[in-house]
Amino acid sequence: MTIDEKRRSLYAALLRYAPEAGSLRDRVLDRLVLVALLGATESEPFRVGTIQANIRFGPGSPGLRVEVIQQALDRVINRGEVEHKELRTRHAYFLTEPGIREVNTTAESAASLFEPVLQKMLADTASLCTSRMLKKSLLI
Q1: Which of 47, 62, 91, 92 has the fewest other C-beta atoms within 10 Å?
Q2: Is there a contact between 53 and 69 (Cβ–Cβ < 8 Å)?
Q3: Are 51 and 32 in contact (CB under 8 A)?
C-alpha cells in the first residue's frame, strides 16, 4: 500500500469513526432518506426496502443497512419531515410538507452550487452536441 493509499484509508476511517463526523454523517443519511422518499405519498408510501433501493447509486454499489436507514427515519420522523403508517403489518413512510420543503431547499442549494461547475465543464462543447442534448442528458 502506498503512502497516499494509507492516507486515504486513514482519512476514511476518521470520517467514519470520529465523534466530530457523527453529526455530519447523520445529516447526510437524513437527507439521503428524504430524497429516497421522493414520490412516496400517504396513499402510496414506501417501505424500507424501497428506500434502500432508491439510495443505491449503481448495480455494484454497496447499500445501506436497514438499521442505518431506520435510525435516519427515526430522526426525520421526530423532526416532522416524514410520517409513517402501517401497510400490510409493516411500516411504510412518506414525506410531510416540511419534508418536501427540506428536499426542495436542498435541491435548490445543490443546483446553485453545481451550476457554475457545469457551465465550466460544458464550455466550448457546442460543436460536439446541441445545448438541448446537454440539458436533457444532465436531467437524466
Answers
A1: 62
A2: no
A3: no
Domain 3-112 in this protein, CATH class: mainly alpha
φ, ψ at 46 (rounded to 5°): -100, 140
C-alpha 81/C-alpha 7 separation (Å) is 38
Distances (CA, A) of 118 to 33, 50, 113, 115: 26, 31, 9, 5
The residue ranges of DSSP E strands in the chain, in sequence order, are 82-87, 90-95
What residues does each domain of the chain span?
3-112
Place of cell 421522493: 38
- Average pLDDT, consecutive stretches of 10 residues, N- to C-terminus, the chain (140 residues): 73 63 80 90 92 83 86 94 88 93 85 80 70 58
- What DSSP state is assigned to residue 18? -
∠24-36-87 over CA atoms, to 5°? 120
Dig out the grid coordinates for 10 from the structure: 486513514
Residue 51 makes CB contacts below 8 A (sequence gap 6+) with 33, 36, 37, 69, 73, 93
pLDDT for position 62? 76
Task: Residue 101: name the closest of 46, 29, 34, 44 by CA.
Answer: 34
Predicted pLDDT at 19 = 62
